[in-house]
Amino acid sequence: MDETLHQLGRLLLGSVPTIILLSCLYGLYTVIVHRPLQQVLEKRRAATEGAIEKSQADIAAAEARTAEYEQRLREARAAVFRAQEARREVAIEARMNAVNAAREKAQAQVAAAKKDIEADRAAAESALQMEAENLAREIIRRVLAPAGVGR
User: Fold this and answer.
1) What is the pLDDT of residue 15?
2) Residue 150 and residue 142 in contact, taking contact as beta carbons nearer than 8 Å
3) Dihedrals phi, psi of 148, to nearest 5 degrees
4) pLDDT of residue 142
5) Mind giving me the DSSP string for 111-134?
6) CA dihedral in degrees (59, 64, 69, 72; nearest 10)?
7) What is the largest CA-CA distance in the chain?
8) DSSP state of 145
9) Rg of the chain on CA atoms, in Å
10) What pTM does this model have?
11) Of all residues in the chain, what percent carry a pLDDT higher than 90?
């Protein structure tokens, strides 16, 4: 067993330069490769995440502008509809005024025609009355006239 321990001690003593060399290699790797690589990866991640955040912010801004545009479009459509409705109401009112004016004119013409007809009827009635009186006088004159006088 003594020999085994002795061999083990020589083995450990022979591995000391390898351990020192590996430790130096690990230190150099960390300083030369690993830290700069970590820094580059962090910068890339920051740039990527920054680009993603920027694109998300741009998307949010675009959505806000789109919503604002749609709101303005709705307001413009509503204004157009209100203007159309106002014009339609003005046109309906003008049409109603024209209809009322035509109705009043027609009623005035009907009233004038009724007056003319009434005047014509009264004139015809008085003419008929005079004619009836003349006929009655003529009939009375002929009936009461002595028979044979007018022959």
Assistant:
1) 86
2) yes
3) 90, -5
4) 84
5) HHHHHHHHHHHHHHHHHHHHHHHH
6) 180
7) 202
8) S
9) 62
10) 0.44
11) 65
State the Cα–Cα distance between residues 46 and 53, nearest whole angstrom: 10
**Cβ neighbours around 33 below 10 Å, total:** 10
Question: Do residues 133 and 126 lie in contact, with contact meaning Cβ atoms separated by under 8 Å?
Answer: no
Return d(Cα 88, Cα 95) in angstroms, integer: 10
Amino acid at 26: Y
Q: How far apart are CA 108 and CA 105, in angstroms?
A: 5
Q: How far apart, in whole angstroms, are the C-alpha atoms of residue 27 and residue 29?
A: 5
pLDDT in tens, 14-60: 888 888 999 999 999 999 999 999 999 888 888 888 888 889 999 99
Q: Pull the structure tokens for residue 142.
A: 């002929």
What does the pLDDT look like over 61-81, one tens digit per residue?
A: 999 999 999 999 999 999 999
Residue 39 has what DSSP assignment?
H
- Structure tokens belonging to residue 46: 């920051």
At residue 86, what is the residue type? A
